[in-house]
Amino acid sequence: MSNRSHPLLQIRSEIDPLKTILLHRPSRELEQLIPKYLDEMLFEDIPYLEQMQKEHDEFALQLTSRGIEVLYFENLLKETLAQQDARVQIVNTVIDELHVNSASLKEDIRQLLLSRSSGELAQTLLAGLSKNEVPHSADEKRLSFYIKEGFPFYLDPLPNLYFSRDYGTVIGNRLSVNTMKARARKRESMLLEQIARYHRRFTSAGVDLWHHYNEKDSIEGGDILILSPEVIAIGCSARTSPEGIEELAERIFEKDTGFREVLVLQIPFARAYMHLDTVFTMVDRDKFSIFPGIAEHIKVFSIKPGSKGGLSIIPRENLKKTLSESLGLRGIQLIETGGGDLLTAEREQWNDGTNTLAISPGCVVTYRRNTVSNDILRKHNIEVVEIPGSELVRGRGGPRCMSMPLYRETE
Ligand SMILES: NC(=O)NCCC[C@H](N)C(=O)O
How many C-beta atoms lie closer than 10 Å to residue 63's C-beta? Predict the structure, then answer.
């Protein structure tokens, strides 16, 4: 346990000094990727795990060496599973949500999971359970013993778990456990919700939730940017639905949290820009990095509390002007990644050149490989902390995607 003297959760901006962050160090779940199922698993390629872990450790080191406390998802899960009530609840939920009908098979899997130690069970819940691992009795073999051609897992692996940005978002002092769009990522938020419900670090801080993992309309954290203590931007994207945004906005406005406006930035629904933070991130009080190929395609809407208790939604014309007005700034700078050359910009955007993680105003973490975009940021007086990303990038996410800030200091 740390000597924290502040509450566990507090995020009122994208850029305030970062104090505590949740990461997941890529692990065995990446070794369950096979070419046939890459699309379903939301990957284009299979990373080299050992190298990926080195890169991730470098990322974590850049944070810890600046005094930022790093919590690891797998440790929190393991500690949660050490509590008997949590363990039974988590295994029951996993079994209820299995894509398996047979009651006897479900029971076999339940018993197998419950027989594992907390550490092994945590690994299984992340790396998945392959059909080969479920024992067959000598005289009653299942068909999966003979037929190996189909999907190899009863419990899918979670190779996207290292993108901790997406399954949870701290807004003010509460946590939104996000409803993921794709089946491949749904268990990520279920597990986060169980950690928030049972882990002493969360229970002792009395953490409340804005949103639960299994709601109807999808919303993912890569689309949520807390621009200021009053304004939140939410991307409407291939992953985040208009209904999910409205629902969250209503809940936020209902509480007296200081947030008074949600700016909706609708981006084209495409793989290369699956979330708003793949094309637009905040790097300083009045500066944003943006992928130039997208600026003219973004549609902007302002949502405020309506006079009769609902929402007032107003289409806005111009991103830059809307941002300055909403943030109460004279002007803002949109820094185009790729340095004005669209080919470079597209290549670097694909490698997450626009996906910056701010650790304090004007200081961001980025991948070293995006040399042109990093230089442009520096030319705009942004301090750039570079990390390697040859393997990490293969899951299509950068430093912001790989991190869930839990606490930022406010001035
Ligand atoms: N915020 C982000 O853009 N996260 C990256 C998520 C990448 C992951 N392979 C996915 O498709 O969900």
Answer: 22
